[in-house]
């Protein structure tokens, strides 16, 4: 783990038990930078990520028909060919394929790795995934932690669709925020579905449970753009539609702009006198 990221965690009174176990990664057998880069670039496609979820559900022996729920047969063959070239699967007889890595229970850790790589590669941010901390009141791990502009970011990662998310997961997310005290927190759902219908409602219900009838005034869940929402410009509800890195960038910029405005930075356009760079004297 990066030293500055470690320092940011330790300064909050949390002890790091371990991070990045890697035992549930689809990529755990990849050895070269080129192969890791290729797999990372393939993950930018939402259909490929859905394809991998099917692949893990039907492992270790797979047929083409198992893998076409979310993509065409042509796309599935292309993805299979890429995975063969990477040594992740091998072809058997009658269009059957075999997963060559040891059993991977789900797509969760691979998605967490992918998001940490986005933060490292696209934002030049120190990042770590599946971080287990001690001294917190909530069990489990922190899916992704990163340092953005010297601000600690916590990302809770959900690979399942919104219908599989429940109140307990939102409750634990907010409790982990209370334990860690990050500067920013993202509740990320890898979906192109609407967040307003289910996820936003769960947040509103949990905030009302915690803070009573004034929760809507003190902690409103507000649409930022598209299906991106924020709570006081520090907690964000994020999906992957139109690109995960793009959505992260919108939220990070919004938080920075809000902080700068609060510090007195004159970011809003002036009412008069702003014409082609001239100024009143």
Q: What would you note in describing this structure?
A:
The protein is an alpha+beta fold and 281 residues long. It has two domains: 33-99, Arc Repressor Mutant, subunit A; 108-262, Trna Endonuclease, Chain: A, domain 1. The protein is built from nine helices and eleven strands. It has helices at residues 3-10, 33-42, 46-57, 73-86, 108-123, 167-180, 196-211, 215-218, 244-262, and strands at 15-18, 61-63, 89-91, 96-99, 127-134, 142-148, 151-158, 184-189, 221-225, 228-231, 235-239. The longest helix is centred in the last third of the chain and has 19 residues, at 244-262. The termini are far apart. Mean pLDDT is 90; it is low at 273-281.
Classify the beta-strand content into a percent band.
15-25%
Class inferred from helices and paired strands? alpha+beta
- CATH fold call of the largest domain: Trna Endonuclease, Chain: A, domain 1
H and E string: HEHHEHEEHEEEHEHHEEEH
Biggest sheet overview: 8 strands, mixed
CATH architecture of the largest domain: 3-Layer(aba) Sandwich
Q: How many domains make up the 3D coordinates?
A: 2
The low-confidence runs, each spanning 5 or more residues with pLDDT under 50, are 273-281
The first-level CATH class of the largest domain is given as: Alpha Beta
Helix content: 40-55%
Largest sheet: spatial strand order = 1-5-6-7-8-11-10-9
Shape: globular
C-alpha Rg (nearest Å): 21 Å
N- to C-terminal distance: 53 Å
What's the total count of β strands?
A: 11
């Amino acid at each position: 783990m990066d030293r500055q990221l470690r320092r940011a965690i330790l300064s909050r009174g949390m002890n790091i038990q371990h991070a990045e176990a890697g035992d549930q990664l689809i990529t755990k057998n990849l050895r070269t930078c080129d192969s890791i880069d290729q797999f990372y670039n393939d993950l930018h496609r939402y259909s490929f990520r859905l394809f991998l979820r099917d692949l893990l559900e039907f492992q270790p022996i797979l047929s083409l028909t198992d893998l076409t729920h979310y993509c065409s047969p042509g796309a599935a063959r292309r993805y299979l060919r890429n995975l063969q070239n990477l040594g992740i699967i091998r072809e058997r007889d009658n269009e059957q394929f075999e997963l060559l890595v040891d059993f991977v229970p789900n797509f969760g850790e691979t998605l967490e790795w992918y998001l940490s790589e986005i933060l490292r590669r696209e934002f030049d941010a120190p990042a770590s995934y599946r971080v287990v901390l001690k001294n917190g009141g909530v069990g489990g791990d922190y899916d992704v932690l990163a340092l953005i502009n010297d601000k600690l970011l916590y990302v809770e990662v959900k690979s399942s669709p919104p219908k599989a998310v429940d109140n307990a997961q939102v409750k634990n997310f907010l409790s982990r925020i209370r334990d860690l005290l990050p500067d920013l927190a993202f509740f990320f759902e890898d979906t192109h579905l609407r967040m307003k219908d289910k996820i936003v409602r769960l947040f509103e219900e949990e905030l009302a449970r915690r803070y009573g009838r004034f929760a809507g005034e003190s902690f409103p869940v507000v649409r930022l753009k598209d299906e991106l929402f924020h709570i006081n410009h520090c907690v964000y509800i994020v999906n992957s539609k139109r690109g995960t890195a793009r959505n992260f960038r919108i939220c990070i910029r919004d938080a920075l702009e809000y902080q700068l405005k609060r510090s007195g930075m004159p970011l809003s356009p002036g009412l008069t006198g702003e014409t082609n760079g001239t100024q009143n004297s």
